[in-house]
Amino acid sequence: MSVQPIFGGGVFPFGTHVYREPCLDLEAVLRDLPLLKSYGFNMIKIQEHWSADESREGEYDFSRVERLVRRADELDLGVYLGLTMEQAPAWVWRKFPDCHFVYSDGRRHNQPTQYTIPMDGKPGPCWDHPGLREAAARFIAELARTLGKYKNIWAWNTFQEIGYWPNTAGKLGFCYCPHTLARFREWLREQYGSLDALNATWQINYATWDEVEPPRREEPLAPFIDWRYFMDDVTMARQLAFKTQVLRENDPYKRPVFSHADTPRVGSGAEWRWARAGDFFGSSNYPKWNNGHPWDDPVRSEDAALGNEIWEEMMLCTDLARSNNGRDRALWGAEFQGGPISTSLHYGRVPTPKDLRVWMLAGLACGMTGISFWNHRVERFWKEANGFGLLDPIGDKSERMEAVSRIGAAIQRHGEFFARSQPPRAEVALLVNEDTYHFFEACNGDVIEHYRYNMRGWYARLSRLGIPVDFLDAREVAGGDLAHYKAVVLTMPLSLDGAYFAHLRSFVEAGGTLIAEACPGRWDKYGWCTLTQLVDGGEELFGAQHQELVMIKEPGERQRWMPYERRYGEFDPPTALAGGGPFAALELRANFYLQTLLPTTAEAILTRDDEAVGVMNRVGAGRSVLLGSFLGFSALAYREADADGDRFLEALLATAGVSPDRCGPLLRRRRVLDDREAWFFINLGAERVIETVDVAGYRKVTDLLGGCLTEQTDAEMTISVDGTNLACLLLSL
């Protein structure tokens, strides 16, 4: 299967943002369009604003946007047009004074000032308000009919960087208005069927449906799990679907509709629902905005910082967006960093041509089928001023613009391939469970950060081993998608639903390998402790019983993720676990929890002082593995004390038939379309690597950007990849 291209069979959408309100000089933007065309862009991105285009109810003025669309059409430039509906007109707030989001304590979120910066007007009004929704539908319909007559509009975007942020709602979040609470009760009726069933699940005693409400002060309560799922997964997806439907009904040419997230939320499943509300999905990529995590070992070189940008800010984020988007669908880098990050007085480093090369190639390696930069020129206003642009405020040239132009031209020479190809399905999946995510959100402190950090660590280990990863949501697990994988991983699975776990058992019985970290299902989905300290069916599947649980200190003097001891000796000292059986020569560091186990049918593969802390069990045609600690924490922290962690994981996955894709120290990623492939070689080390690679059976090899392919015969080729860099070769059978 291949990706259905967004516009034509041979075009890779390659664009840049050019316009949003307030705009100081529309004429200057119009003058820049031929310049962008000369740099090889085939698309511009326009952000339109409800507040700017319907300042009086029923009076629509799309003239400014229409001038840009028309001029782009004259230049044969496509348009990616994003709606900014959260920036509502003043008349909306006056006509519908009850359309504000409402906090759990009854306060309104009141921010009617009509500026796009910051945050594109988010969170905006509450779309559960019927009058507001009707007014918005009329506006979107008029926009689609008016601007939709231009055939050069390639795609509509219903929500740019999806979210309710910024807000001070805390973990309980929005929205407690009467309209949303009524919808919440309707949804609960559909899910549970009866009030008795709801009461039994939540262990509560409501007399009528009108009494049912989400928590307003405390999070660790059973209703919190359903409440957050309803707001994050149901309500947000419904908002996206509403806008999508209006566009589809009124666009005369039925162009594709999508939305995009900001940096994806590792561990959350909400974006699977968001992506499915449209025809495809996208992400924001600002690699220099974040670099590593405070719990990581310090980054002490430019190469190490750029390495983080490659594996985390680009590859992890794109792999997650690709996974929640689904196969055979376009995936756009919908906001791609073009200039320095600027946030008020904090001004970042200007991206170099090398930065832009590795970011673009990393995005392509993980499946991007389109890229749109933010912006063509630097921002002008306050918080983001002088940031983000490929060009400076004055002048028509810059090193970064010229680098992007060269890379874009190379991609366009193979535009049909990069618009339609996709990575092969991975052999390993990291399991994402929205209920588990919300369980950690509700726990005391910032425990959700532990869950996210640990899953991030698993990705980091697999990435540097050269093992591609998919992320798999709980609904995909229930739908049978597990069958595509050799091994799946349950990271930090303290809260589990028994019905969900039953699917994992079926996967193992059919021949798969399940790897679970400590205490799977110590709590059920709604926070009730299980008597065996394992999920229902866990003892049988893992072939072991829970014995004891202790917490383990970090190896360093500085405390990164552990809570403070309530008394001396509460935590065990830093601990190394000894490998057993096929892993006898290896050690593994214990992190955070250490669960000791009593094997019944399983073989001990990790021990501490002769006690089993990791087991492997044969069940049906497959294997289950229970590791009594959290392997992801030490992937990027205290690495000097974790010399064997990666080797242990590689050996463990080898028992499931999973092999890394490496050429010496070079990691390799692939994209495939029919009889053509792209091989991306990733060098995360600081020194240049020269390797010989087998190419027997391939009739043609093309070096996408040049400088990589140094020698070639019918059977093999020699490649050279500079330190902390990527290269791409295109091969034909």
Structural notes for this entry:
There is one protein chain. With 733 residues, this protein is an alpha/beta fold. It folds into 3 domains: 370 residues, TIM Barrel; 227 residues, Rossmann fold, CATH 3.40.50; 71 residues, Immunoglobulin-like, CATH 2.60.40.1180. The protein is 31% helix and 22% strand. The strands form 6 sheets. The protein has a 9-stranded mixed β-sheet, sandwiched between helices. It is globular, with a radius of gyration of 26 Å.
Please sum up the structure shown:
This protein has 733 residues and is of the alpha/beta class. It contains 19 helices and 29 strands. A hairpin with a 2-residue loop joins strand 22 (662-663) and strand 23.
Strand content: 15-25%
- What fold name goes in the CATH topology slot of the largest domain? TIM Barrel
Gyration radius from CA atoms, angstroms: 26 Å
SS-based class: alpha/beta
Q: What is the terminal separation in angstroms?
A: 17 Å
Number of strands: 29
Number of helices: 19
Averaged pLDDT: 95
Named at the architecture level, the CATH assignment of the largest domain is Alpha-Beta Barrel
- The level of helicity is 25-40%
CATH superfamily of the largest domain: Glycosidases
Q: What's the arrangement of strands in the largest beta sheet?
A: 12-11-13-14-21-20-19-16-17
CATH class of the largest domain: Alpha Beta
- Please tell me the total number of domains: 3
Overall body shape: globular
Largest sheet: 9 strands, mixed
- Unreliable stretches covering 5 or more consecutive residues: none
